[in-house]
Amino acid sequence: MSRHETVAQSDAAPVFASLRREAEAASLAEPMLAGVLAAAVLTHRDLTSALAYQLGRKMGEADLGPLSLRDMAMQVYADDANLIGIIEDDLRAVFERDAAARGYLQPFLFFKGFLALQSHRLAYALWRQGRDMIAFHLQSRASELFQVDIHPAVPIGRGVFLDHGTGIVIGETAVVGDGVSILQNVTLGGTGKTGGDRHPKIGKGVLLGAGAKVLGAIEIGDYAKVASGSVVLKPVPPGCTAAGVPARIVNCPAGPDPGANMDQTLADSAYDYVI
Fold first, then answer.
1. H or E segment at 71?
2. pLDDT tens per residue, range 224-250
3. Domain of 110?
4. Which has the closest alpha carbon to 200: 177, 219, 184, 185?
């Protein structure tokens, strides 16, 4: 059975219904994990309840225990009804863009990019409530556990995919749009110690390749692509590809929706100019 066949019959159904079916099948296939799957998925009434438990289990420790973290997450989800749809879109994004994902259950339980993003969404909600210290605590904990360091002030759109997650760093005044895909070791950083608006603004549908560094208060236009290992110091127009150190525009357009299709190749017939 292909990975898409595992959820093909439930594409129109809510994500949690598919997640439960996968957990039930996995419990039968691997009885040693039945207790874990029951606690993480099967005993919950909805996706936010399961996610709150999962974040509590993963991130809870002596200073902020699993039950306290779970209860805090449940309150955040109750206060913002929009978060359920955003979380569903994030989980769909992993399945649709990651060839290693066999369904929803695998990323929900094991993929640290997905879990790091959900911990950030919780920290961001708390930041907006003025609870900056607990938001920083979650940022620090996520950095320790997942090697993903996102400032809690950063707004991140829906349907975002952090592939692998390891080494991703996103600074305080950055913005990340809907449908963006970010691979490992990407930095959205500043260019010095000056305060104020100093980090990149990433448009919707952008693909940031592995090891890419985007530095300064610059814009990466909608559906643009930054090639792996590139260092981008100037804006990238919408629909274009930037590659190199320092980055140059190598082709426009980059192709339809690079953030979704995950194509990290470069066009054979590229033209080249410094940005």
1. helix 66-79
2. 999 999 999 999 999 999 999 999 998
3. 10-148
4. 219
